[in-house]
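Predict the holo structure. Ligand: manganese (II) ion.
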Amino acid sequence: MDHFTPRPADKFTFGLWTVGNPGRDPFGGPVRPTTDPVDLVAGLAEVGAWGVNLHDNDLIPFGSSATERDRIVGRFKDALARHGLVVPMTTCNLFSHPVFKDGAFTANDADVRAFAVRKCMDALDLAHELGSSTFVFWGGREGAETDACRDPMEAVRRNRRALDCLCEYVMERGYKLRFALEAKPNEPRGDIYLATTGHMLHFISTLAHSELVGVNPEVAHETMAGLSMVHGVAQAMEAGKLFHIDLNAQKIGRYDQDLRFGSEDLRGAFLLVRLLEGTAGNAPYTGPRHFDAHAYRTEDMQGVWDFARGCMRTYLILKARAQAFDADAEVRDIIAAAHRGDSDELWVGRDVAGAARALRARVIDPDALATRGLRYERLDQIMIEYLLGARG
Ligand code: DIG
Ligand code: MN
Ligand code: MN
């Protein structure tokens, strides 16, 4: 045990599909055995995770009978109770079975769309039974290789109709569930609809029950789109829509690598943890810290647990570094000095006529303002030195 040993209060979670990933890729088969979900629960408890998440078919094989489904779920719940793990998030696999080859909610065949909505209803029943509070939708197959195949506006409408219906299902059943939409720009489809967290935030505003719907941004997916994960998460937090988060690591310009958290863009990971933990003074994120990532294909099961420990330790180390950074007097002085002036009072929240008069009456010298040095180089160097362990 040390300062970076995970505790339940840290709310670290992993999906069954992450630590249970058998290591297959498009160019090779599995390198690790398929592990019983009950054994994954035991392993996650052992490394200090708080919870485990799952797709319906991570636990219940596709096409299982109702009796078999109930037996599997009962056995899994016993394991959860035995090891003290919770299931904060459940999701539905709308991408593996070939029936979804042209999409699920957005497929051109109405029977496929109907099958997808029904499968989600069953997965929502499972989520409720497992005590989940969040249900993630990742539309991995909702896209196209040739946009000649369907009107992309109709694709938006089909996504909306499915989510409005499923929100009403949750409301009618009285389930305490909120939806979190997860964006990804491409892979496995050539282009995926609703490609980034920004697209999702607008789309949510068009839904009938938008109060039930937020986002689940993923580091790798925003990075694949060439965007700042920190800015996307900040916009979601500011809108009260960060309902969940997928933490991992990613090299820009690559396929979806889902690497161990912090193992690529360490600076970006630091700034993300700083934002989530609110060490700079913002309201912190209070939801699960979920790692949607998997171990290298080179690893055996011991390597998988090394991977899981690494995700959590890196998060906790970065949290401590961010706390120290934002407590550093020189950091606070530089940031305070950059935030100067009281001119917002002239126009923010005022009647626009009064604001216009006050703004035109204020003497502001743009040339003088332009000469100010803001000392961001020094600020960023201090951050780098905190990351390198050379300071604090
Ligand atoms: C992939 O990034 C997606 C699926 O694994 C899952 O639906 C979602 C939940 O974290 N992430
Ligand atoms: Mn991913
Ligand atoms: Mn994900």
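Residues 301-327 form the longest helix (27 residues). The chain has two domains: 8-324, 329-387.
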